[in-house]
Amino acid sequence: MPRWLVILLACGCLTAIPARAAAPQARVERSDGSIIEAALVAIDANDVRLQAVNGDTTLPVTAIRRVVVVNEAAAKPRPAPVTVTTTTGSRITGDDFTWTGDVAAVIRGEERIELPIGLVQLVAWRRPEDAAGDPAWIPTLPEQPESDLVIVGAGPEAECVACAITALSAESVTVVLEGETIPVKRTRVAGLRWLRPPATPQGRIDVATAAGRFAAASVTWSPADGLVLDGRMRMPAAWLESINYAADRTVRLAALDAERMNVEPFFGGLRGVEGLAGFFAPRLVKVPAGDQSALLLRPRTVGVWRVPADSRRFLGTLRAANAAAPRAEVVIDIDGREVFRGTVTTAAPAPAGLPIDLDVAGGRRLTLTIDFADGGPGGPLRLDDARFEK
After folding, report:
1. DSSP state letter for 5
2. Nearest-angstrom CA–CA distance, 319 and 384
3. What is the DSSP code string of 306-361?
4. For the CA atoms of the chain, what is the radius of gyration?
5. DSSP string, 45-85
6. Does the pTM exceed 0.90?
7. Which residue(s) pair with 358 in the sheet?
8. From residue 383, how far is each of 300, 316, 333, 340, 348 by CA, in Å?
9. What phi and psi values does residue 315 have, to the nearest 5 degrees?
10. How many whole angstroms separate alpha carbon 313 and alpha carbon 383?
């Protein structure tokens, strides 16, 4: 090595240039149902760039349903000493919370997610006694406070002090109370609640990250610039887990009124028995896992829905509603043309269920028929996550 280079290195005059992060592997589900697995190069507001064995590929986001990043580190659970809730309802977890000027940050290890302080509504620091869930003082907060609140103390006995929150440092929280500026030691502060009205997310693109889930109108990503949501929330590139573009183009079947619904039980006379008509009628039920409702249907049910304008596909999963449910036949028509037929039982493909992924482009009406199988009374079915995608 040349002597001048040794001297420069010893004096610290040269800094190593960090190697560019390797492009992570991603699974891209296209709107037509096909799947591409390749290295993720970059994402902007309009396109997703991939690097496959046979060359680079650019896909418009309008043709993509979901991008899932293979990120083992992000999937590992970790303790969250602090939880930040935004005005749009997103929850961000991390090790600590900082605030300087107009920028707030949630710290996770040596990395951070940055966002405007105007988006922060609630900060909750978790104490040892809160390990099982949210701090006990959160349910005691007023639904419509008249000012900022600083929560002092711990447990259900924590005190909410009305004030104006003006600053935060490693040692204290500065508040204005009755015209007097008061520093409160951080060790006494359990939480902060700003007087900010709830806001509606700018968009409905569903973004899952290591720090939480977010709804966004625009998403950009690159190894160099990280993950940026709506141009104002920034986090490390490695935190990205998935982007569901279809969430912005989805109409849930549960949100639509059926144009027609006919129900004929195996023993038809049961419809006239008081209290039983509602038992056989379709109804929404909560899915054991997830936050979506499912539609519970019993043979023989025929439902007709108008297909939302510009819809491309109809998706969902059919499964037996319980372990004792006998077989049931399922038929789906689009404008009188049969496009799906299947049998649902408690055997295979349960518990994975019977997937539905249909091309409905140009269709006007979808008819779903749940019928008896093998001459028997049939059993209840659950239609999970049924939706039209545009």
Report:
1. H
2. 8
3. EPPTT--EEEEEEEESSTT---EEEEEEETTEEEEEEEE-SSTTTTT-EEEEEE-T
4. 27
5. SSEEEEEETTEEEEEEGGGEEEEEE--HHHHS----SEEEE
6. no
7. 314
8. 15, 7, 16, 14, 16
9. -130, 155
10. 16
Q: Residue 70 in contact with residue 26, Cβ under 8 Å?
A: yes
Q: Which pairs count as long-range contacts for 3-7, CB under 8 Å and 24+ apart, including other chains? A: none
Coil, strand or helix at 6: helix
Looking at this protein, which amino acid is placed at residue 193? R
Give the HSE-up count for residue 294: Cα atoms under 13 Å, Cβ half-sphere: 19
CA atoms within 13 A of residue 330's CA, in its CB half-sphere: 23
> Tokens 């009406």, residue?
365
pLDDT tens for each residue of 98-142: 999 999 999 998 999 999 999 999 999 987 766 667 888 888 888
| Half-sphere exposure for 86 (CA within 13 Å, toward CB) | 28
Q: Per residue in 253-300, pLDDT tens? A: 888 888 998 888 755 545 555 555 555 677 777 665 554 678 888 888
Of the candidates 281, 290, 342, 350, which has an alpha carbon nearest to the alpha carbon of residue 321?
A: 350
In sequence order, the β-bridge partners of residue 305 are: 366
**pLDDT number for residue 375:** 62
Distances (CA, A) of 307 to 254, 260, 300, 344: 13, 13, 22, 24
Look up tokens 């409160």; give the residue: 184
31, 64 Cβ separation under 8 angstroms:
yes
Structure tokens at 260: 């027609």
DSSP 277: H
Long-range pairs, 278-282, Cβ under 8 A, ≥24: 282/258
Burial class (CB in 10 A: 0-12, 13-18, 19+), 175: buried
Q: Is 239 helix (H, G, I), strand (E, B) or coil?
A: helix
| 127: three-class secondary structure by DSSP | coil
Q: What is the pLDDT of residues 211-270, one digit of tens each?
A: 999 999 999 999 999 999 999 999 999 999 999 998 777 888 888 888 998 888 755 545
User: Residue 345 corresponds to which tokens in the numbers above?
Assistant: 């039982």
| Residue count (the chain) | 390
